């Protein structure tokens, strides 16, 4: 499957929805760790507005704005975890 990340040059958003993976985010670079996403789970970061559209289990939510892409992706994944997504790459923590 083709990489769904788009280059920032000329693009206004980056889409993360490749089945069973998400980008590892560190200082706006995507390298290394892949986390399993559910089928249909999608995070779309708008580079202009710095917002994130989260599509999860037939619900769509606009989050942000965020200081950077790293913060947006983490917030989107937290939004999904809080609604039942089992992120098998990160152990559950008690609050």
Q: Describe it for me?
A:
There is one protein chain. With 95 residues, the protein is α+β, with helices and mostly antiparallel strands. It has one domain. The chain is 15% helix and 25% strand. The chain contains 1 helix and 6 strands; from the N terminus they run ββββββα. The chain has one helix at residues 69-82, and strands at 13-16, 25-26, 29-30, 42-46, 51-56, 59-63. The strands form 2 sheets. Strands 1-4-5-6 form a 4-stranded antiparallel beta sheet, covered by helices on one side. A two-stranded antiparallel sheet has the order 2-3. A hairpin with a 4-residue loop joins β4 and β5 (51-56). The chain is globular, with a radius of gyration of 13 Å. It starts with 12 loop residues before the first strand and ends in a 13-residue tail after the last helix. Mean pLDDT is 74; it is low at 1-10 and 24-33.
